[in-house]
Design a protein that fits this description.
The complex is a heterodimer of chains A (186) and B (375). Chain A has 186 residues and is mainly alpha-helical. Chain A has 2 domains: 82 residues, Rna Polymerase Sigma Factor, Chain: A (Orthogonal Bundle), CATH 1.10.1740; 71 residues, Arc Repressor Mutant, subunit A, CATH 1.10.10.10. Chain A is built from 8 helices and no strands. With 375 residues, chain B is an alpha+beta fold. Chain B folds into 2 domains: 193 residues, no CATH class; 144 residues, Protein Transport Mog1p, Chain A (3-Layer(aba) Sandwich). In chain B, a hairpin with a 2-residue loop joins strand 9 and strand 10. The chains are: A mainly alpha (186), B alpha+beta (375). At the A-B interface, helix 1, helix 2, helix 5, helix 6 and helix 8 of A face helix 1, helix 2 and strand 21 of B.
Chain lengths: 186, 375
Amino acid sequence: MSRDRDAEYTEYVAARLPSLRRLAGVLCNDWQLADDLVQATLTRLYVRWGGVRTATHPDAYARAVLVREFIHERRSVWVRRVSLSGRVADSPAAEVDQDAVLDLRAAVAALPARQRATLVLRFYCDLNVDQAAEILGCSPGTVKSQTARALAAVRRTLGPAPAAGSGGQPPAAAEHQVYPGGPGHD
Amino acid sequence: MTEPQIRALFTRIADAEPAGSQLDIQLARSRGRARLRRRRAWVAGSSVLAAAAAVVLAVGLGAVRLGSGPALRPAAPSQFNPLVPYLSFGWLPAGDALLAGGVRPEVAYLTAGRTIDSNSNWNVEAYAAGQCHLTGPAGELRCSTEALEGLTARITGRAPAVRGHRAFWAGQYLVWQYARGGWAAVLLPIKYDNPKGSSAARQQARREAARIAAHVRFGVATPPLVFPVQLARLPRPWRVSSVYYLPDAGMLRASRFALGTGNPDLGADGGLEYQTSLPYLLVDPSTPGNDSCGRPATGVINGYRVVVTHQVLSSVNGQHTTTTQGLCAAGADGLTLSIAEHGSAHPPIGVARLFRDHLRLLGTSPANWTREPIR
């Protein structure tokens, strides 16, 4: 691994840390887990740096690595947690959430990892079905069915009369990029 | 509607991102490097165990038993002198030759083959005394630290003794204790990583690895290590801390080298150890028609056209900032030179000053190269 390549990697990931961390936070619904996920993703990006730097859309590639790492780690019940250091990060102050938001949060958190990732890609990253399928390594039809099942599961959990008023503005559109080929797991 | 609510929820979660993450790019790099190395060492996995057992059976009768206790064997060096190549090949498969080598205090290494980018190359590493530890009954040989690109190899079977010294197969490695307290390893060519490859070919490769190991020479005279540049008037503690060399004109020409004053705090990479604010240099004969600097010159120093760069990298929330200074001179007396200093905005001697006041280019004639990179 040449020094130039290391510097290139460092420059790239340093600039992407905030967006990767936010995406990880939404996926994990826990910031310590999110940091672990991003740390694991950074290692994987280093190993796969050749693929990242030659990808048509490196950011989409990096995002795919993170999402797949999330699904992979959830499948293994987080048994291989990464220890960032001996010190535990300070917990953020408790949020003042409404009951309905808490219920929704719990309902989404209860979804299987792949369904949750599907919702995040569709409704947080604003990816279309084809783009989400590319990242998840499945067909567009599977993305549609996963989305439908996830929404149905959330509705079932929330009950027949979900509270109104917890809506908000959708996030700004993320980059709509699809990378050629996809990063997989080793 | 659930969908807008979910969008809002995700936005709310993202907006609640706490400050002060402990993400560590340097840690990711060192773990990534270690993973790359482990991948090469472990790919063969358990299949090697059976193969190693077969090798033991095949050559067991010829294996030399240890005739003397460890106390009678010579001790491995406590550390290597980067200016003295410690290793050399005594035998290589037909057509293969030394391609590159390097030395730093903890390890000396060699690469042999036909071309440097081939997947058919052999690598040999010898670690200084105390750098390697054989751990646990399961057997794992750990050498140095991950940050220094140390070897971590899981023992998969006993190998025939190497010149009377105990040896093991460890994935793609043949490891043996070449002297008291010191371990060495031959890494089989990458092309044999494929477990689906020919078993006969792997067996042949292991026989060649064993023969390479048996003929590796430690601490005997090698061709001289020479430098095409010379530094002068440096702070007294500065010394060459690691070297990567290439065979050239019957000598070993330093192609990269790093300066240090003690323990490297930026780890090791590409065979070199790095230390904050201290320079490392890459110098090779220029390739005609190839502008190795890749960008227009930014100035002229001592009559040479140079590219000077200054790069600042910040981590999330600005917690960590690192700076890299770089200088590149292409076609300078027939050499292409690159100097870099990493980790601090204010190095003791910046790259431009180092080039202007402390460095002398010695050209492309081997007769002018020096064994004293610092005088």
